[in-house]
Write the structure tokens for this entry.
Amino acid sequence: MNRTVLIALKTLTWVACLVPLTWLIWSAAFNHLGPDPTATITFATGRTTLRLLTIMLAITPLRRLIPRLGWLIKFRRLLGLFAFFYASLHLFTWIALYAGFDLNAMAEDVLKRRYITAGMAAWLALLPLAATSTNWAIRKLGGKRWNRLHRLVYVAAVFGVIHYWWQVKTGVLTPLTITIVIAILLLARPVLAWTKRRRLRTVTA
Amino acid sequence: MLIRKPSDFRSSEITPRDEYMNRRRFLRGAASGALALGAAALGAGSLAEVISPSARVLAATKLQTVHSPLTTTGEELTPYKDITTYNNYYEFGVEKDQPSQNAGVLPTRPWAIEVEGEVKKRRTFDIDDLLKLRPLEDRVYRHRCVEAWSMVVPWVGYSLSEFIKECEPLSSAKYVQFISYYDKHVEKWARDVVGIYWPYSEGLRMDEAMNPLTLFTFGLYGEVLPNQNGAPVRVVVPWKYGYKSAKSIVKVRFVKSQPPTTWNDQAPQAYGFYSNINPDVDTVPWSQKTERRIGLPFYAQRRTTLLFNGYGEQVAYLYKGMNLRKYY
């Protein structure tokens, strides 16, 4: 891919990823966060995290299906780091606006409330991925070990979806769409690997 | 010497800013309604049927009210706009902004409440008679949802006990059950809610229902209840989580034993029959220690939840000797 095009696309990705944050700051400043601003901030940061994780998870299956889209790999780290950024904002919303920086309240929440346990697990799964996102870390760990470690992103996505389901009210089905999309993207991996193996076998046979 | 009393405004005399702004929208709605009426063939129905439901919702009627000594003081009222656009009324959709968009289709006239069960005689009360049964009082109450948010609402109504007296319950009546309006063709959103059986049912112990704080409610902010807030008549039980305060009541049943209630049926571990507001008893999945006040900036919302929502002085006697952890 042409370097100019790549820089342009990366800039666009940055801008797109910053839109939810800009919207939140703008709305907070002009009092447009609705009747329950705390809930609006929590929902917006959580939803953005899940959406970014979804886009990120789509990259590998897309590259396998359409080899011409191989360059998409260049965007995965950026999207992943933004997912971690919004997950951290989401976590901070809970620490500041829900627990009020009270360590006891936080500990109680994590231990007693399963949706918070699941959310915490998702964030903790993303943490080492963000920490080892540099080229230096990849070299240091070695590609194979780095790849294995970064499979934690599946864990994060699954816990993220569970966290979403466990905190919505009974009868609310809003998490359904993203659950289906993430399920398809996760299932696509073994399915694509299987078809590839089969193709290889028929070629060698 | 002449000592003049300070002027005592009733909330019905104050036009909330949002309502004042709504007047323009209503007039516009009425104007387009009139045009539509002109365009439609004669006999198209009343003007009210022609104008859009949202315009009808906005066509709030002022109520004649008197001041009540039972009103809660020292709280800043939640804006009218927030009270009427942030609602839990699952029959009109599960999202907070859905009831205000959808509840326009609720037919609030003609309306009657059927009274049955352990009563001297079965009776039906027409809504317009109920409105005149006792003087309507302005009563500001804190309103606390089990989802850990709260409001301060200036309701209009009279004590439910006044209505119960008219019903002439027998001494065998130990509980009172409220059944909400339900028509699956009108409230088509209710069908998408998984795991809840309609119509909505709620209940109180007889002494809870007779407590003067329990309000038979017809309005808010000095006006007729908007549909999404439970028009034309509901109960408000300020020391219990919001779902105990049944909306749009069509049937009141006096019964001998604890009646089935909707949320208790749905998840008995989470929602008890009593559902008294209690910061020390958690309700799955939320903590109940604190709450978010609606309509404030994000940094000012959080506050401590009070036992019985701060109404302990008036209601704690009802639960004397009861284990509030067991009877949550």
In short: The first strand of chain B starts at residue 65 and ends at 67. Confidence is low (pLDDT under 50) at residues 23-58 of chain B. Chain B touches chain A through 31 residues (CB under 8 Å). The CA atoms of residues 37 and 132 of chain B lie 33 Å apart.
